[in-house]
Amino acid sequence: MRDFQAELQQRRQDGLYRKRRLIDGPQQPRLSADGQPQLAFCSNDYLGLASHPRVRQQLIDAVAEQGVGGGSSHLICGHHQAHHELEQRLARFTGRSAALLFSTGYMANLGVISALAGRGDTIFSDRLNHASIVDGAILSRAKVHRYPHNDLEWLAPRLAQTPGHKLVVTDGVFSMDGDLAPLRELAGLCRTYNALLMVDDAHGIGVLGRHGGGLVDQLGLSEQEVPLLMGTLGKALGTGGAFVAGPELLIDYLVQKARSYIYTTAMPPALASATCASLDLVAREPERREHVLALVRRFRAGATALGYQLLPSATPIQPILVGDNQTALELSARLEARGILVGAIRPPTVPAGEARLRVTLTASHTEADVQRLLDALAEVRP
Prior knowledge:
Layout (H helix, E strand, L loop, with lengths): L3 H10 L9 E2 L5 E4 L2 E5 L12 H14 L7 H5 L2 H14 L3 E5 L2 H12 L5 E5 L4 H10 L2 E5 L4 H10 L4 E6 L11 H10 L3 E5 L14 H5 L8 E5 L9 E5 L1 H10 L1 H4 L6 H16 L2 H19 L11 E7 L1 H13 L2 E2 L1 E3 L9 E6 L6 H14 L2
């Protein structure tokens, strides 16, 4: 039998041990963590909608009308009118023909990737893709190539030389670096070499683009250029669940083949109704996107002036590269002692030697909040 205790102890020694904080109250910048008041810069609630009064009220009203549980899978008796309405709204929101709901983003990637590729096929996946993409590719049993991050010069000849069905999968906004995939060029390669392109834009949906439709919206890429778009509902949209959008043919195929869609209970219908309220706010209040991106610029200027090494990101994800695991943990702890909550991200979430503080900014933060973070960073600077 494996010595699980020894493995846990080794993780502690290597600075890789993970602990959960106990959060109390609504998801917002000012919260209670392990009983202590903190100003949090580690949430993916980018537009501040998780606690928005309209979203909360819509959920309450929908629970009164529809109950709580989904009751069954979508293919038995769990596909509610609220789910259907949200799928239609998400298709229009992303400029796609159809959309399909999943319970989580992880389940979406597992189900979609393993349905669209199998034995004898080939998957090309960016090396910095989210773990759910990595796991979905493994589950598919296809041959998998993890190409160097955003390296299209490496990818192009491999696509050209690979016969048969090819699936290229990439994050839109990379969750730990905050940088963007070169989607326009990647879409061109996939068209040239007859590969199917899937984009996980979990961290772009709601934040980027003229209408909040994510990176594909920002770049004006059509369904023909990016056939499959995955997004989550628990980040900028502030609720829960995920979706994939694309041509009706592929969405119908996923209904038949995606195991993580077929064999799980549908999300609560009331949650789908609340997400429709979130989509209304994204459309009506573009100032939320403008505000958070203005805070990003302010933070980057201040942190750079303090001498911190930032990664090249213009998104709400702002990593401060530290390198050493223990140093990252110590910086995070020193900030927490000053009432500032910022997560220390370590391997295997990021490559070895690239531990970092992952600062995330939201529309609920103020300029004063960002200044308080910068002041704290000045105090704890190594």
